[in-house]
Amino acid sequence: MTDGPDEPANALLLSEDIKGYFDSYELVVVPVNPEEKPLTRWKIDILDKDIEDETVQGRNLTPGGREAVRIQDLQDREVEFLNDNRPVAGLLHLHFLTALIRLKNTNTASWKDAREKYFPHASSSIRVTQL
After folding, report:
1. Coil vs helix vs strand at 32
2. Where are the domains of the chain?
3. Would the pTM count as exceeding 0.85?
4. CA neighbor of 47 nearest in space, from 19, 24, 26, 61
5. Where does the chain have alpha helices with state H?
6. Which of 48, 82, 120, 131 has a CA positioned 20 to 30 A from the CA of residue 112?
7. Beta carbons of 112 and 106 less than 8 angstroms apart
């Protein structure tokens, strides 16, 4: 079996609402502790601040699963897995990097927050220009 993105072992089962935000790169799944080896614990990071006040529903988000949850309440929430299987870390990392690239192109406050969080030592004076 390969570790390709379409392999069943890489499935990340999300509620339909959350999957939409994940697929559109507005939220990502990142390691709880990036220094942990192997990576086994993951959490949600909301990259697009414009969705924070929106609500989602999912059966494992609240007791009984019937109440809506605001997106901002999912920030830093650890992803609960039902067994020891995890998606390949490199594929989640690729999704994360793709989300950052897409967000960078918006040059919004959300990008500035993400840049500060994930690249705190990056110089704001560095500019990339097209030739």
Report:
1. coil
2. 8-118
3. no
4. 26
5. 16-23, 89-104, 109-118
6. 131
7. no
Amino acid symbol at 3: D
Q: Which two tokens stand for residue 37?
A: 């080896």
CB-based contacts of 108: which residues, under 8 Å, 6+ apart?
49, 50
pLDDT tens for the chain, 131 residues long, are 456 666 766 677 788 888 999 999 999 999 999 999 988 899 999 999 999 999 987 666 655 566 788 999 999 999 888 888 888 888 899 999 999 999 999 989 999 999 999 988 775 555 555 54
Q: Which residues contact 30 (CB under 8 A, 6 or more apart)?
A: 42, 43, 45, 92, 96
Helix (H, G, I), strand (E, B) or coil at 72: helix
